[in-house]
Amino acid sequence: MQTMDPWWKSAVVYQIYPRSFADADGDGVGDLRGIIAHLDHLAGLGVDVIWLSPIYPSPQDDNGYDISDYQDIDPLFGDLDVFDELLAGVHARGMKLVMDLVVNHSSDEHPWFLESRSDKASPKRDWYWWRPAREGMEPGTPGAEPTNWTAAFGGSAWEFDDKTGEYYLHLFSRKQPDLNWENEEVRQAVHTMMRWWLDRGVDGFRMDVINLISKDTALPDGPVAGTAVFPESAAGYVNGPRVHEFLHEMHEEVFAGRDAVLTVGEMPGVTIEEAVRFTDPRRRELDMVFQFDHVWADRGDDPWQLVPLKLTRLKAILGRWQAGLAEHGWNSLYWNNHDQPRAVSRYGDDSPAHRVASAKMLGTVLHMHRGTPYVYQGEELGMTNYPFETIADFRDIESLGQYAEAVERDGRSPEEVLTVLRARGRDNARTPMQWDASPHAGFTTGRPWLAVNPNHTRINAAAQRDDPDSTYHYYRRLIALRHTEPAVVDGDFTMLLPHDERLYAFTRRLGATELLVIGNFTGRRVRAEIEDAAAWSSAELLLTNEAAPSADLTLAPWQAVVYRRTVEA
Ligand code: GLC
């Protein structure tokens, strides 16, 4: 890690959500053998790294983001032998494997927590955040919680435990108690576990909500226990006082001497200034972070109101991140993951007329930024959101928790809440991977744990592999461009047309090579009014999803173009 020219700068990462990828044993849940069976799909796409969402033993309260044993595989997915087979299969194809590291919290069924909960005098008591009721309040009564912090999945972040008469902290579900990183033994246990996986051959970690691990030990109340999940002002735990120290220590304890490792920290509420500190190689913390500004750009003050996304806002946000990390640090680039709705339904147009073009356009714009792009399973097929009808169609703990709170507690109308969950709910990303047109999309021979999108008869991998014009083959060419064109990796980034609500345009410049990237975010023809349009239109067209534009650079609906020219150095 962090040599002069780290390999991950020219890499593309593919995220697998194992429960929804491919089911080999017919129980309706994806598994490791299913992944092994489809490794050639990924090698064919040309990705360099696979990131696996959690596969460790877990009660599956949050689909594996609640871990009860960090050094094993959940029988739902396989066992350590199958894991080794998968790892060997990945390496044999020249790819790398990155694990999800979920250590802000464990499961409440982890032996550490069971021990911690058993007795105030337990040696593991201090491994979690136990606190008495607020001064003068009756323990377990409303308002007696130690702080006003709210949990991401609804309700208070504190759970009262009868056994010892104290509360424990959980920023997510009550089955995800937060680990106390102030305790040195906790940190050592995490480091030991991480080294164990690296020694086994894994190539790095995606670190779940890692900017929440350091809490202000005074545990101050928040300004408002409002509805925004991680406001930048969130009291006491977003980018807490010791987070840089903890990550630097982890770097020294775990990654020192292991140059080929990739680390990416998921960081809701991280600012650009903080991200520079996290990813500046001289500080030896992380390689890159996932920021949330661009995926929160269509959130309003009222979470149950859909705010249409303004392209100028999206460009301003991503442009700021490009500029902010230009000198030191490195960006990660994503539209999708298992927590976000499908990009083509959110930023593009998933109607039959425009779905393919807009999916390709979105991929082009994202991948041509400076940073390491992440492709989420099914994105390479242009998979869409799911047509959810009622709340009973959802399985996601977040959607269910927020629905209960909004409808049952706050009296919102179910339809109002469902409208937002249909557009934004996490299960949109979690419907099974669409391998073919057969009844369960080739995902399982059993009953899928979450419904398959009915559009799998039209949108599936088998059909796209045979079609050179498919989204899959377009992504293949897009990914290859990063491997062959150094300006994509290292070129300077300059945003063009910042006030234009229709076009996303920028240049990349490395030495004498200049690239021009334009994406049309509308279903209409739009002329790109940029300097040098005529000269650019006769430059080399490296990639486009439509016919070459006319000399005045008029783009077709949802068209993307990447031009290359040589300029005076
Ligand atoms: C991260 C994960 C999300 C999970 C949460 C709690 O945001 O991506 O899926 O619910 O952390 O672990």
What does this 3D model show about the protein?
The chain is α/β, with parallel strands linked by helices. It has 4 domains: 357 residues, Glycosidases (TIM Barrel, Alpha-Beta Barrel), CATH 3.20.20; 59 residues, Oligo-1,6-glucosidase, domain 2 (Alpha-Beta Complex), CATH 3.90.400; 31 residues; 76 residues, Immunoglobulin-like (Sandwich). It is built from 17 helices and 18 strands. The strands form 4 sheets. An 8-stranded parallel sheet has the order 9-8-7-3-2-1-11-10, with helices on one face. Helix 10 runs parallel beside helix 15. The protein is globular and about 75 Å long. About 2% of the residues have low confidence. The structure holds alpha-D-glucopyranose.
CA-atom Rg in angstroms: 24 Å
Return the domain count: 4
What is the CATH topology of the largest domain?
Answer: TIM Barrel
Question: What is the residue-averaged pLDDT?
Answer: 95
Helix content class? 25-40%
Largest sheet: spatial strand order: 9-8-7-3-2-1-11-10
Name of the CATH architecture of the largest domain: Alpha-Beta Barrel
What is the SS-derived class? alpha/beta
Q: What about the largest sheet?
A: 8 strands, parallel
Proportion in β-strands: 5-15%
| N-C termini distance | 31 Å
Ligand inventory: alpha-D-glucopyranose
Number of strands: 18
Uncertain segments: 225-233
The CATH homologous superfamily of the largest domain is termed Glycosidases
* Principal-axes shape call: globular
Under CATH at level 1, the class of the largest domain stands as Alpha Beta
Number of helices: 17
